[in-house]
């Protein structure tokens, strides 16, 4: 029996309302949903569906399962690996855009939890938690548009992992619509629940390939009253690692962020953002951006931070340091870090990497990788920065000045092999926080063991035997 797209769309409109089924045959522009924000991936979609609640998600999934239509779940479409848009090939697909499921269902101050729908924007949750004196610590560049469901589906990282962990560490419960349309209710705000398999973990980081996250219960924390930011110059990555250990020892849980930034990255920011002030007197090959926060007095925390930094300087663990005197100065220091991505976009073509390594092995990795890249790709410009506190580097490689952007992108696999082989040799990961999606799917078999991949496929087969959940992603 042939597939009648018009009949299918009519059934979908009957389920969730005519206005919430977008299709090109009616003149709707679907490109914002079928193309990722980096313009690297775009695939065809029969329609974009915008359900309003879990029941409508279930109804659409049941229709899709009965008719062999694949579903691509989508949040804010801010991912970096193409997981939230259709593949260029594969089964007939629709995009299930979850932005209308955007309610904060409950904030339990005594239990320090929030229950939210998947389409809730991360910044909205941050603000609502702050309004009742609580902190939701997940923080990343796209927080004004990314959605909680997407954060969970990709196990997002961000700048506060040092203290609070990845998204996985912040999730207590989930509501998931399974590939057959059944609703799996795991929305429990419990820190302890030792009753068999922890099923929610299957869906965190699965990039929508096992089911559709429709709601979550997440951890909240007491909002810090004091926050202090410092910016230091160091002579080497090894010195930065020593500084990390010393500052954690001296400040303990108050130490919340530790970002490593190469001198080349800072130079790039200051080139494209010439009004950026220089926090330090001289130039250093490496810089560190640090933050501490707690519930005490601001002056007390600043004194503790300053004392720790001065001790580290005396011990030879840093070369120079600037301590922000107020909130505005702290935000200006963070903008040095946040503007690296924008500066790279303005600079031209670059090949991005999101790798993680044991912190102790990062100095050796960087020391070996810089000359190796220079020899293999003369003129290539590594722009290195990332969350050193949790072992995550964004080891991006900008094109040599004389090479056309398109030509440099053709070198992606070759550059990836040099970097990812070195990461694997040091028992690291080729994806720390961005996921696999379409971008790294072909590389996963090179760096995952056969038994790991086999178990992953068994789980996929058990939950989605027909393969209609976000096909072409991860596996």
Automatic annotation (TrEMBL):
GO terms for molecular function: catalytic activity; FAD binding. One of its GO terms (biological process) is respiratory electron transport chain. Gene3D superfamilies: 3.30.465.10, 3.30.70.2190, 3.30.70.2740, Uridine Diphospho-n-acetylenolpyruvylglucosamine Reductase, domain 2, Vanillyl-alcohol Oxidase, Chain A, domain 4. It holds the Pfam family FAD_binding_4. Residues 41-223 form the FAD-binding PCMH-type domain. The keyword Flavoprotein applies. It comes from the Bacteria. Coiled coil: none annotated. Its cofactor is FAD. The keyword Flavoprotein applies. Keywords: FAD, Flavoprotein. Belongs to the FAD-binding oxidoreductase/transferase type 4 family. This is FAD-binding oxidoreductase.
